[in-house]
Amino acid sequence: MPASTGKPRTIRSFVRRTGRMTSGQAGALERLWPEFGIDIAAEPLDFTGLFGRSAPVVLEIGFGNGDTLVEQARQNQELDFLGVEVHVPGVGHCLMQAEKEGISNLRLIAHDAIDVLQTQIADGSLARVNLYFPDPWPKKRHHKRRIMQPEFLRRIAHKLRQNGDFFIATDWAGYAEHIDEIIALDACFEPIERRKHAGEAPLDRVTTKFERRGLGKGHAIWDWHLRRV
C-alpha cells in the first residue's frame, strides 16, 4: 500500500476513516495490489504503459466500495478506468470485485484525489472524470471542505483532453445549489445536461450505493454532464 507524501494541506474534502477491514478485503489488498494498485508518486502516470494499451482513460474520484466502478469497467471494455479512494476497506472490496469479474481495464490509487490530480495526472490526458455523490458537508461551517470548488473545477478542466467530459451526481439539494453556482462561475466547461430525477434516470452511469441510500431518505437526485471547451 502507498505511503503518504507528507505534503501539508489546510483543508481536506474528506475525513480519513480506516474502518474495519474484513479478512477478504485484507487478503485482496495483499494479493491484488501489485496488479491493480498504483502507489503515490511525484511524476505523471504513463497510461499506455500502465494498462498495456492506448485507450481513453476515465478517472473516478471517490469510488466508495467500488461496485459501480467495477461494473462500469465491465460494461466498457474499450475504456480504461482509474479509481481514487481514501477508504482502504473500500479499496479492498473493489479489488475483490475486480478479481471476481475478471476485470483488466482498471487501476486503483488509495490516496487523496487532490494530490493525485496535482502530481500524477498529466494535463490533457483524461477522456472523462466522474464525481459521484461526494461528501456534501451539509453544515454551513463545513462548506469550505466540499471538493467542488472553483479551483477544483479548473484543475479537472486542465486534466481533461479537449471536449473531455465531467459527470457529477449528488442527492443533497444544498450541494446541488452549490454545484450550480460553481459551474456558473466557470468558463472552461460547457453544460451539456442537468437532470433532476427520482433515481429512475441516472445520466450515463450505473446506480450507486450512496444514491440508493439517499433515495431511501426521500432525496432527489441531480446529475450534470459538463464538457471541456
Keywords:
single chain; 229 residues; alpha/beta; Rossmann fold; seven-stranded mixed sheet; 8 helices; 7 strands; 35% helix; disordered N terminus
Helix content: 25-40%
Order of helices and strands: HHEHEHEHEHEHEHE
What is the name of the CATH topology?
A: Rossmann fold
CATH superfamily: Vaccinia Virus protein VP39
Number of distinct helices: 8
Radius of gyration: 17 Å
Major pleated sheet: 7 strands, mixed
User: What topology, given as strand order, has the largest sheet?
Assistant: 3-2-1-4-5-7-6
Q: End-to-end span in angstroms?
A: 37 Å
Total number of domains: 1
CATH class categorisation:
Alpha Beta
The chain-level structural class is alpha/beta
Average pLDDT figure: 92
| Strand content bin | 15-25%
Q: Could you say what the CATH architecture is?
A: 3-Layer(aba) Sandwich
- Give me the count of strands: 7
